[in-house]
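Exercise 7b. Backbone tokens:
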């Protein structure tokens, strides 16, 4: 009987000792709540101090639902007969022109004044300044230099110089023979750009 009692006491003592050792191991390897509280601000401290809020890559599930939800619209299904009646009484009144029928062009009114710079009562018309008369060509026509059957050529004199020219030729680098007739010649000053001048045949 003594051996059974002693074995039972030893088993109880061994169980208590094992429980105590298990508690010691758990206490050493698991951090306490004070340690967790002290380490959590240290990791998040720089972000809070820098003024930066933590970003999360996920969006809240409430945002899409908020966008999809629209406020109910208030629709008035009442039929306003007064407004319909006023709309039916409106008649279209055009300008009287029928686009399917050709019509004459509108008449342009005649101006009452001539548009002079002096005013509406000024009836004076603008007159261009007179053109200066061209200087006479200093050539003399005194005979023919061609034979019968040949192109016409004439003698022209300018001072002491004598020229022989036909129609279309230029004399003295300035005067063009335009036309030759039996009694006269037409010559144009190409430098002065004046009209052709008729020079009569000089006898003698």
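Sequence design result:
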């Amino acid at each position: 009987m003594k051996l059974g009692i002693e074995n039972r006491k030893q088993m109880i003592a061994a169980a208590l000792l094992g429980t105590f050792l298990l508690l010691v191991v758990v206490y050493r390897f698991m951090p306490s709540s004070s340690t967790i509280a002290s380490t959590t601000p240290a990791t998040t401290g720089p972000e809070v101090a820098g003024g930066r809020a933590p970003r999360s890559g996920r969006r809240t599930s409430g945002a899409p639902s908020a966008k999809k939800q629209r406020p109910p619209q208030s629709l008035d299904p009442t039929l306003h007969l007064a407004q319909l009646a006023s709309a039916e009484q409106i008649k279209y009144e055009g300008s009287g022109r029928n686009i399917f029928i050709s019509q004459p062009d509108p008449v342009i009114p005649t101006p009452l004044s001539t548009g002079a710079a002096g005013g509406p009562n000024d009836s004076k018309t603008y007159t261009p300044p007179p053109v200066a008369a061209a200087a006479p060509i200093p050539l003399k026509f005194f005979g023919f230099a061609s034979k019968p059957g040949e192109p016409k050529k004439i003698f022209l004199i300018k001072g002491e110089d004598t020229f022989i020219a036909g129609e279309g030729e230029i004399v003295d680098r300035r005067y063009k023979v335009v036309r030759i007739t039996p009694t006269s010649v037409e010559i144009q000053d190409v430098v002065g750009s004046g009209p052709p001048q008729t020079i009569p045949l000089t006898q003698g």
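Instructor comment: DSSP finds four helices and seven strands in the chain. Strands lie at 140-144, 153-158, 161-166, 170-171, 175-180, 184-189, 197-200.
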